[in-house]
Design brief:
Elements: E1 3-7, H1 12-23, E2 29-32, H2 38-47, E3 55-58, E4 63-66, H3 68-78, H4 90-119, H5 127-147, H6 161-176, H7 184-195, H8 197-206
């Protein structure tokens, strides 16, 4: 098999790539990486010295691709399927990339800041940083609420790379900063994402690791 994905099922950025792979039924091998295991961490560092997943290896083309957005772009070019995750139209592709970055930077990253703070020992917490992350999430929710008043998916009526980014980002964000009143469109969009078979599969596969998600 040409493709191997080095990842962890609980990771939001890994789930983003899994959704893309599952959408197009792209064959690939799984290598679940436990970063707490020195040997597995060293193996990942050998592939991508930054030491973060997901990382995709395409043995047939001799390519190693890192970063979730770039992996999906790579798949769209070299392993396309029936779901065109990056539109052919240049303007729509640009809009898709913008929404992809929006969900990564303004939903996923603030969520991770809150989760990361939960992992810090007493005395090393950053309440100011957490408050700022929550404000960023609420601003993002307000923007999504407005956008989704007239859309089925992130950029219109077609599922795209932006929705691959939105699904896990919103899933975890809602756990740390619930959508709440005033975000009915966000909630309905999230329900559609949860019902999408590709994301439902990623959520199910993360189930055995859910206990690792830090609670309050």
């Amino acid at each position: 098999m040409s493709l191997t994905l080095h990842f962890h099922p609980l990771s939001s950025f890994c789930q983003k790539v899994l959704v893309a792979l599952y959408e197009n039924r792209t064959p690939f091998e799984c290598n679940i990486v436990d970063l707490a295991d020195p040997a597995q961490r060293d193996a990942l560092l050998a592939l991508w010295p930054i030491g973060k997943f997901p990382v995709l290896v395409d043995a047939a083309r001799g390519e190693t691709i890192a970063e979730s957005t770039i992996i999906i772009e790579y798949l769209a070019i070299h392993h396309p399927g029936p779901t065109q995750l990056v539109p052919a139209d240049a303007d729509l592709a640009l809009a898709t990339r913008l929404r992809d970055r929006f969900f990564d930077l303004y939903v996923d990253m603030p969520m991770q800041a809150i989760v990361g703070d939960r992992r810090r020992p007493a005395g090393a917490k950053d309440p100011h940083g957490v408050d700022e992350a929550r404000r960023r999430l609420r601003t993002a929710y307000d923007m999504i609420e407005k956008d989704m008043a007239t859309r089925t998916w992130a950029t219109g009526e077609t599922f795209s790379m932006a929705d691959c980014a939105a699904a896990p980002a919103l899933y975890y964000a809602n756990l740390v900063e619930p959508f709440g009143e005033g975000h009915a469109n966000v909630a309905r969009y999230f329900e559609r994402l949860m019902a999408r078979p590709s994301f439902a599969r990623a959520v199910k596969e993360a189930g055995p690791y859910r206990h690792l998600f830090p609670q309050e």
